[in-house]
């Protein structure tokens, strides 16, 4: 462990792109995914500690642009103290010009994740403990499958997903060409898994308001814990109409670009539940701000993707709800996190627990 009194100083920031295969390809309303691009971020320090984080920009063609922004911002950290708060505040002026959405905020978030990891390692504490929490297990739902596959295949896949880690909760994607097929799929999953399993549905922004009202009402009696993003993420008025009309809670959040966007959605009554995405909410620092907003407004807060770091953050989120579990980064992780009895087990190691399998990184490295 480095001398905490001396303070950490950034030596360099390295960003590497990999493209890994998905163990179970996923079809959604917005596209089919058989592989997953990742940007691996390493913040090295003069004291020998390396903070790690990763970003998942969905599309390979978006990865090159984000990598450029990360490298540019990272160069500005060289020689600076490892201070996530200072780095985040310093980026606000830059964001005011480059924009508070898209690749700009994503880059700030990626560096923030790695800086917090370095800080926790220097303190000799897991990230959750550094932030004042514990390493108690985090309830999770399995999001690795149940894409827009034919309804006659969903029951078998649902049972497979439950068995992957003793899960008691699943996500199913909806938005098939025929609304009736969505109903059949949801009912077949429910029949297969039983009434005790939590089931949530995601439209992935695939509907217009008229169609969403009709389809969501049809799902309203199916015992879903939430219906996620039926409309385009920034249609707050439309989501507010749905939230007022439906008995099933409306979930938003994976496309909140910063905590203020989450506050705007809550103030507009556009959602009943929130699930920030670590890349878009602003990393660890942005998440903590968003968690305070959720606490003050009383909304349950779940996570979107990034289960390893999000697990730590949910431990210090007052209104924590569900962790979205997916194993898409596992191909390049030296020590993938465990899920037992449907709960994510946080490792008892300093930092956020991310460590790269360098041979796998070399194998999957992408020339972008």
Low-pLDDT parts are: 1-5
Through-space gap between termini: 35 Å
Assembly state of the chains shown: single chain
Largest β sheet strand count, sense and barrel closure: 5 strands, parallel
By secondary-structure content and strand pairing, the structural class works out as: alpha/beta
Large-scale geometry: globular
Determine the strand fraction and express it as a percent band.
15-25%
Question: Short summary of the structure?
Answer:
This protein is α/β, with parallel strands linked by helices. It has helices at residues 60-75, 84-98, 102-123, 127-130, 154-163, 179-193, 209-219, 236-245, 259-267, 278-281, 283-297, 307-314, 358-364, and strands at 10-28, 31-45, 50-55, 138-142, 169-173, 198-202, 227-228, 250-252, 273-274, 323-325, 338-340, 343-345. The longest helix is centred in the first third of the chain and has 22 residues, at 102-123.
Protein described:
This protein is α/β, with parallel strands linked by helices. It contains 13 helices and 12 strands. It has helices spanning 60-75, 84-98, 102-123, 127-130, 154-163, 179-193, 209-219, 236-245, 259-267, 278-281, 283-297, 307-314, 358-364; strands spanning 10-28, 31-45, 50-55, 138-142, 169-173, 198-202, 227-228, 250-252, 273-274, 323-325, 338-340, 343-345. Strands 5-6-7-8-9 form a 5-stranded parallel beta sheet. The chain has a 4-stranded mixed beta sheet with strand order 10-4-12-11, covered by helices on one side. A hairpin with a 2-residue loop joins strand 1 (10-28) and strand 2. Helix 1 (60-75) packs across helix 3. The protein is globular, with a radius of gyration of 20 Å. The protein starts with 9 loop residues before the first strand and ends with a helix. Mean pLDDT is 95; it is low at 1-5.
């Amino acid at each position: 462990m480095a001398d905490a009194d001396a303070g950490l100083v950034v030596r360099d920031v390295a960003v590497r792109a990999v493209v890994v295969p998905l163990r179970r390809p996923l079809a959604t309303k917005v596209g089919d995914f058989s592989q997953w691009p990742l940007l691996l971020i390493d913040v090295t320090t003069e004291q020998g500690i390396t903070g790690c984080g990763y970003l998942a920009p969905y599309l390979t063609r978006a990865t090159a642009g984000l990598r450029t922004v990360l490298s540019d911002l990272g160069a500005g950290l060289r020689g600076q103290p490892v201070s996530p708060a200072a780095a985040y505040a310093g980026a606000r002026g830059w964001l005011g010009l480059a924009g508070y959405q898209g690749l700009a905020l994503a880059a700030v978030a990626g560096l923030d994740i790695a800086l917090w990891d370095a800080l926790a390692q220097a303190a000799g504490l897991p990230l959750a403990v550094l932030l004042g929490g514990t390493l108690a297990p985090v309830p999770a739902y399995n999001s690795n499958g149940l894409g827009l596959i034919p309804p006659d295949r969903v029951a078998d896949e649902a049972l497979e997903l439950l068995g992957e880690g003793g899960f008691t909760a699943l996500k199913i994607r909806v938005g098939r060409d025929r609304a009736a097929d969505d109903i059949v799929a949801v009912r077949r999953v429910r029949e297969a898994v039983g009434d005790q399993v939590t089931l949530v549905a995601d439209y992935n922004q695939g509907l217009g308001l008229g169609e969403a009202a009709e389809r969501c009402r049809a799902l309203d009696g199916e015992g879903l814990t939430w219906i996620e993003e039926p409309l385009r993420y920034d249609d707050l008025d439309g989501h507010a109409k749905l939230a007022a009309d439906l008995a099933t809670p409306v979930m938003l959040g994976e496309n909140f670009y910063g905590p203020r966007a989450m506050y705007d959605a809550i103030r507009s009554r556009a959602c009943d539940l929130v699930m920030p995405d670590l890349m878009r909410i602003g990393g660890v620092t942005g998440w903590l701000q968003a968690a305070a907003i959720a606490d003050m407004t009383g909304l349950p807060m779940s996570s979107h993707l990034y289960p390893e770091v999000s697990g730590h953050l949910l431990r210090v989120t007052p209104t924590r709800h569900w962790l979205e579990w997916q194993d898409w980064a596992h191909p390049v992780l030296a020590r993938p996190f465990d899920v037992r009895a449907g709960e994510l087990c946080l490792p008892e190691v300093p930092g956020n627990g991310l460590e790269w399998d360098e041979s796998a990184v070399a194998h999957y490295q992408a020339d972008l």
